[in-house]
Design a protein that fits this description.
The protein has one domain. It is built from seven helices and two strands; from the N terminus they run αααββαααα. Strands 1-2 form a two-stranded antiparallel sheet. A hairpin with a 2-residue loop joins strand 1 and strand 2. Helix 2 runs antiparallel to helix 5, helix 4 packs across helix 5 and helix 6 packs across helix 7.
Length: 176
Amino acid sequence: MSLLVNRMIRAAKLDVHLYEEVKADKGALGQAMGIVVLSTLVPCVIGTFDIGGFALTAADMVLCAEVLFFWYGWVLSTYLLGTKLPPIPETHVTHNELLRTVGFAMSPGIIQVLGIIPGLQPLALAAGVWTLVATVIAVRQALGYHSTLRAIALCVVALMPSYVVFGLIGGIVRGL
């Protein structure tokens, strides 16, 4: 457990060596997916907080599942675009390596839980931006990019297929 917490702190500190470490650690996939689940579910659950406590409905659970699927779709798009469209010679990454690095980049998102405390909602927003920065760094490291700008461009372009696919699926599910 202390290894996981240490890695999460290093990921939140934007430690590029951490992303190289988890990329190489095949045993870290479970940890990374645990971080993803926590960091994506925290905002979903916070959205259900009311004065009387939490009121998680079936619709809320569907939304939380959509967020997880959207995240995975984005990582898959990032992987496909980053390794198939003009990759650089240093780009040697597997699907699981990218899942591990980007999974750990979600670490700052866990502090969004503080958003339920009145007056700390801006901290939750800052955690979201922090997570985006960590994600760009994780993608840059995983794909062996020398340019942060290239990693940003890939992250943005890879979002488009996820928005289209999961927007359609979400619309269909909500229509039912």
